[in-house]
């Protein structure tokens, strides 16, 4: 194994100042593009040349300490909770934020409660925190972040928290759209898959509530069915299916729906004749299942609009109008 | 939309010092657990109580500037390049690093060349950079990071770069294992899917080379077939299939393999009779395809061992022995 070299060789702004024959403060003014300080074009060119020659990269944290603000946008999200739908959206958001001069990082920590999470995020002193799962940004968590100087808090959430800029995203709607469709197709005993994986409850509970709301206004009943994202768990659920007496299932998302679809078929249970199956997210492979999977598509606001909103909040200018996330049924042959 | 409060309300270590009646330096010694400075238990308790009362969270970057080291472990990886296999591994790695007192963040930036990427990562002054895709840590990129003071560079890679601690991960093996299996089953005209998505070339090229190596030692030929991760692209490839005259395909990974499997079947091409299909990653749904998908499973080293290695490099102690990533064939009915 190769040896990692000692960090003592690292280049600092003092090295750049020495080579350019200017003060360290001048290096900082030039590299951080501080407008408040006048630096001649010749000096600026000398500093930039010295920085280039030494391979000096400005230090985002030091810059943020000096400037009193950071350019870090923190997105708390475990890697495994990010589905295929959100991942390319996140990549695009990253590019859009970069266009504004921000660095977006994903913080994958898993914390027992919202405040512990907020403390961990606050340690990095981001300029902004964007919670994809709004319920993690409770009022107390928001307070921890504000006290640490985080100046923009944003969340995709169904209801707003004081001081948090909310992109309306109602997971209740996802469950409601799925249940309405199943009721319209004459199904009356609807199972709703509840993933056992940690961190998904914040999405699964409102989806369940949405289905329950629809059921309460119809003849249908809703039964919560726990399942984890594994073939064994799907097989177990499928084996217990006849005893549950359910004629439809909203399976949390397309990934769980696909697993369950196959497990039901392996048990000789026909889809959609005996059980109608609905997923969510409209992932690429869902239309290719046999039968093709009915799903609920989520239309997220564009990454450019979300990045513009973060930038506006940090600059204290007016944030653009962002349309709410829509839940749209994509009916196919599995239901 | 709720208004984001002004950052001027943020609590600093000066506030903690004032409330505890100690100097700011003492607050720093206590909260950063600096061993070099003696602080009485009574003072320590007073500082901790004041910090708790005010809801003060230490500033990781400020701490790192003072201590001359950061506790940030940066993992460059676009969200969409992280497959189902790697995402839960990453979540576990995050927990293991946290156990050692490090914060792991994913940096999703997409950069045209390795050096531009390294500059962006260096701005955050991480203690360590772990590249899942070893080819992004070129010698020049490593140099940029070292000059910025990053003290541990690690990569999953097939060959080592000077100054980078390498976890052996040979994507050539993945392609070779797939091709050996197809040749052993009597296939002679093997297609290898090359994803058009940016950032996947670093994995796809060595996989192709591995298949070509096996073919060169047998009667088989290998043909690279470009495809993007969409139903349209898979359908196009399937439509062109008869003209390609291929009797087998190694489809980069299980996600592409699943798309292509369905697209081939939609064209009336039977799997495995007319075309044998092999994926990689052994994702959960792969065994549930009709026919179940043959795949190449990658056995990554345990997150605990990788976290221990990062910690050892940062402490300057001996790194543990980490077994290389193995590529293991999981034969099923698609081939």
Automatic annotation (TrEMBL), chains A, B:
Name of this protein: LacI family transcriptional regulator
Residue ranges annotated for the HTH lacI-type domain, each copy included: 11-67
Keyword entries, A-Z: DNA-binding, Transcription, Transcription regulation
Top-rank taxon: Bacteria
Keyword Transcription regulation: yes
CDD domains from the UniProt entry: HTH_LacI, PBP1_LacI_sugar_binding-like
InterPro entries, per the entry: HTH_LacI, LacI/GalR-like_sensor, Lambda_DNA-bd_dom_sf, Peripla_BP_I
The organism of origin for this protein: Streptomyces yokosukanensis
GO MF term list: DNA-binding transcription factor activity; transcription cis-regulatory region binding
Signal peptide start and end residues: none
Positions in coiled-coil regions: none
Pfam family for this entry, one: Peripla_BP_3
PROSITE patterns: HTH_LACI_2 (PS50932)
């Amino acid at each position: 194994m190769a040896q990692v070299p000692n960090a003592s060789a690292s280049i600092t702004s003092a090295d750049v100042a020495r080579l350019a024959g200017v003060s360290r403060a001048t290096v900082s003014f030039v590299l951080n593009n501080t407008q408040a300080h006048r630096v001649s074009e010749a000096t600026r060119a000398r500093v930039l040349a010295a920085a280039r020659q030494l391979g000096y990269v400005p230090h985002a944290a030091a810059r943020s300490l000096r400037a009193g603000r950071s350019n870090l946008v923190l997105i708390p999200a475990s890697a495994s909770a990010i589905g295929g739908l959100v991942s390319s959206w996140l990549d695009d958001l990253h590019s859009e934020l970069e266009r504004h001069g921000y660095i977006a990082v994903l913080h994958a920590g898993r914390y027992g409660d919202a405040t512990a999470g907020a403390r961990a995020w606050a340690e990095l002193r981001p300029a902004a925190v964007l919670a994809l799962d709004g319920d993690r940004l409770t009022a107390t968590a928001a307070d921890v972040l504000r006290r640490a100087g985080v100046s923009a808090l944003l969340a995709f959430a169904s209801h707003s928290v004081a001081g948090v800029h909310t992109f309306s995203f109602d997971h209740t709607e996802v469950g409601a759209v799925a249940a309405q469709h199943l009721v319209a197709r004459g199904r009356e005993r609807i199972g709703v898959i509840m993933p056992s994986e940690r961190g998904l409850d914040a999405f699964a509970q409102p989806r369940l509530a949405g289905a329950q709301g629809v059921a309460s206004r119809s003849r249908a009943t809703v039964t919560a069915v726990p399942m984890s994202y594994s073939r064994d768990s799907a097989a177990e659920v499928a084996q217990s299916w006849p005893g549950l007496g359910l004629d439809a299932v909203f399976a949390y998302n397309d990934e769980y729906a696909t697993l369950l679809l196959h497990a039901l078929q392996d048990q000789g249970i026909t889809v959609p004749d005996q059980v109608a199956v609905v997923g969510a997210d409209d992932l690429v492979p869902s239309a290719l299942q046999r039968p093709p999977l009915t799903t609920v598509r989520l239309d997220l606001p564009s990454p450019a609009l979300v990045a513009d909103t973060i930038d506006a909040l940090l600059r204290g200018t007016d944030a653009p109008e962002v349309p709410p996330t829509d839940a749209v049924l994509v009916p196919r042959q599995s239901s």
